[in-house]
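Course assignment 3, question 2. Fill in each field.
Student: A.L.
Task: Predict the tertiary structure for the chain below.
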Amino acid sequence: MTTISDLSRDLIGDILSKVPITCVGKVRCTCKQWNASSRHRIFGKAVARQFMGFMMMDFKVCLVRIDLNGIVKDEEGSGPVSIKPIDKLNKIEISKVFHCDGLLLSTTRDNTRLLVWNPYLGQMKWIEPKTAYHRLDRYALGYDTNKKSYKILRFVDDAYWPTPLFEFEIYDMNSNLWRALDVTPDWDIEFFRPGLTVKGNTYFFATQKIILDEGEADGDVDDFLVSFDFTKERFGPHLYVPFHSRLHGDTVVLSSVGEEKLAALYQCMDINMMEIWVTTKIEPHAVSWSKLYFLAVDKMVPLLSGSFFIDEEKKLALAFTLDTLGRYKRAYIIGEDEYFKQVDLGEAVLIPDDDDYPYCFPLVCSYVPSLVQINQGLVLSGKRKER
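Answer field:
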């Protein structure tokens, strides 16, 4: 009689590859072999053909799977792209999602709570603010490479409306404490451009800080990457980017490539050009780049506040954003030989009280499973009012 423990590792991998990441914790308890194979099935051949990650769409966290082998062959549209809401978070409205080393950091739509979640282990933790969170907060999740302790960077730098506000704080998940940081930035990071964490450190696309007494900038300022080193708890120097983006009209979006590389998608509206660059070296004080020539196309993607990912082996890029009118969710597929296809993901959720961004942009992040235990010593879920 054949039992579960008699099944081959490859067959177990095929079975587990069909199980959502958020349900893996339940099947891990089946037997020791399934527990050992659950992480292998995510890294191994069973899912080498798939991209798996999480997406924030319509203020809900969704699991996204993409069939990388079949995506170009699909003629009907959305067949290779599977997006399913996470039942466990269905009652929570989320506005941002960040990934680092198997952990997800999410912010609620009302800007009152932070949630750290390990989907693989099924552990969650609410992070209480030191005083209060702010609607213009930017966040990053990383870790100290010496101690492998996880930390959250929170900052808001707004010199204009309605009143100037300047705060930089860091939260240590081991001590459950916030501490103020002494930072005097000479750069600006746009609110709709989130950072990406690679090897424990977070990188942001930034521009030279300009304080204007009146009028607007001429659209031509220095641009670069700036890193936050979670080990030293400080920002690094300006890092070179292989393009020059103006303040108005051009688009720059960052993405991670596996756990070791950073990618940058650059679009110049004036000459109808799009480029994708990938780092060949990335450290808090040094960076070098290589251009992906096989993904060069003469079409534009409306990526003002969207996200993208690439698969170098399959020579594919997928961008998730809204259409040019900002009303419908789209996935844009870019491949070799100027391959370009649009996938309709439905109508976007309207935000009636937001004049700048009246619809909810979809944001996708890749995911790598982790055995990191979230410190459960202090689990606070009480709300604080937004400032």
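Instructor remarks: Residues 1-48 form one domain. Residues 308 and 355 are 25 Å apart (CA to CA).
Grade: pending
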